[in-house]
Amino acid sequence: MPVAHLGSLVMAKFNREFVRVPKQRNIMKALSLKQLKTPLELEDRPELVPAANQVVVQLKAASVNRRDYWITQGMYPGIELPVVLGSDGAGVVAQCGDGVDSAWVGREVLINPGVNWGDVQAFQSDEFTILGLPADGTFATEVVVPVSQLAAKPAHLSWQQAAALPLAGVTAYRAMFSQGNLQAGEKVLITGIGGGVATFALQYAVAAGAQVWVTSSSQEKINRAVELGAQAGFNYRDETWSKQMKQQAGEPNLIIDSAGGAGYKSLLNLAAPGGRIVNYGATTGPPDKVDMFKLFWKQLHLIGSTMGSPADFARMLKFVEQKKIAPVIDSVRPLAEANAAIESMKSSTQFGKMVLEING
Ligand SMILES: NC(=O)c1ccc[n+]([C@@H]2O[C@H](COP(=O)([O-])OP(=O)(O)OC[C@H]3O[C@@H](n4cnc5c(N)ncnc54)[C@H](OP(=O)(O)O)[C@@H]3O)[C@@H](O)[C@H]2O)c1
Questions:
Q1: Is the CB of 283 under 6 A from ligand 1?
Q2: Domain spanning 4-165+327-357: which superfamily?
Q3: Mean pLDDT in the chain?
Q4: To test ligand 1's pocket by mutation, which of 112, 202, 238, 283 has the most ligand atoms within 8 angstroms of CB?
Q5: How many CB atoms sit inside 10 A of residue 289's CB?
Q6: CB-based contacts of 264: which residues, under 8 Å, 6+ apart?
Q7: Residue 242 pLDDT > 90, yes or no?
Q8: Residue whose CA lies nearest to ligand 1 atom number 45
Q9: Which of 108, 140, 165, 212 could form a disulfide with 30 if both were Cys (CB 3.0 to 4.6 A apart)?
């Protein structure tokens, strides 16, 4: 099938709504990481050309993940420079490669950043990659991705909200439901509630009928979490926080953690007998000690989780649409100011997702 490149304004039908196909492209702008620990550089590049089974998406918004920060600092495996960072994006399909139905042109989409998951639900294949390294990502005016990575933008979400959803949204979904097996009425603890994934986890657990507690370094963030439906929160910098929680709230059946590190032993102490502790990250490094006695005597389940399969992604979108979940957005900046957003991750001042506006 020939490449379908529409250079002028036309109308295309998608989701029973007519949407405008983007204007002629020619050049694109991309934020390139050329050297570790240096700011991303905004540069002009020739417009992207999709290969077979690929599409070009003209981006409306992108969002920042801690992964982008880890890569700029050289703290991520397999870094190849230069690279355009950015795993999350939402926009309009501008061009289709061979083998892609040209009806895709003009559709409003968000992008599943997990590529080549494979056929097994339990874990990803060796070919699994994440958009934004090694393939160029979404901190650009356009991105090229396999058409299989596209999903319709949920109608209740703005461009900014749609761009905030994919990576953190699917990570929280798999951790909470596919791996954590959350049941309505259970007690859940989510650590570090300021994090992008953690805020989705809170919204999902509340929507699923759980009772949710959180930890944070900030009382203000705990207050925000309570507004989103948490029962209460505890400051993880206070060494007595887990005792306080046990007294006030009891023991959680499910703990969703991405901090790891020295605080991990509190989680084993706090979990209810038979409880599950799901980790999707280790922001503060490995735990210095895991109490094996607690682990086997309490019959605990320690579970790892990473991003999500295409099935997780589809279920996550359905859940978000059914429950009308709107991602928590910390801030919105123009694409050219992405460096400020990445830099701010050093101090973790954000609550929710940092979004970049593109092609505004
Ligand atoms: N495996 C995967 O698929 C996957 C996917 C996404 C992210 N991750 C990893 O998961 C982690 C979080 O990612 P993110 O994008 O949500 O990050 P983020 O938005 O940058 O959030 C990080 C949060 O970690 C919390 N934190 C820091 N030190 C803590 C501690 N000692 N105890 C508890 N919480 C602590 C802070 O919460 P407060 O501000 O509330 O104090 C901070 O806001 C990162 O390590 C990331 O690389 C993994």
A1: yes
A2: Medium-chain alcohol dehydrogenases, catalytic domain (3.90.180.10)
A3: 93
A4: 283
A5: 9
A6: 257, 287, 290
A7: yes
A8: 283
A9: 140
CA distance from start to end of the chain: 32
Is residue 23 scored above 60 in pLDDT? no
In single-letter form, the type of residue at position 165 comes to L
Give the pTM. Answer: 0.93
| Side chain identity at residue 265, one-letter code | K
Distance CA 153, CA 130 (A): 20
> H or E segment at 83?
strand 83-84
Angle made by CA atoms 239, 328, 105, in degrees to the nearest 5: 145
Residue with tokens 């507004």: 227
Residue that has been written with the tokens 């550089």 in this structure: 41
Percent of the chain at pLDDT > 90 equals 91
| pLDDT tens per residue across span 93-103 | 999 999 999 99
* Nearest alpha carbon to residue 84 among 285, 316, 310, 358: 358
What is the C-alpha to C-alpha distance for residues 202 and 217, in angstroms, rounded to an integer? Answer: 16
Q: What residues have CB less than 8 Å from 282, skipping those under 6 apart?
A: 258, 259, 260, 261
CATH architecture under which domain 169-304 falls: 3-Layer(aba) Sandwich (3.40)
Half-sphere exposure of 81 (CA within 13 A, CB side): 15
The residue with tokens 């880890």 is: 70
Q: Is 215 in the pocket of ligand 1 (CB under 6 A)?
A: yes
Q: For 131-144, what is each residue's pLDDT tens digit?
A: 999 999 999 999 99
Share of the chain above pLDDT 70, in %: 93
Alpha-carbon Rg for the chain in angstroms: 21
Q: Is 171 close to ligand 1, i.e. is its CB under 6 Å away?
A: yes
Residue 111 amino acid letter: I
pLDDT for 22 equals: 54
Distance 258 CA to ligand 1 centre (A): 5
Any ligand 1 atom below 6 A from CB of 259: yes
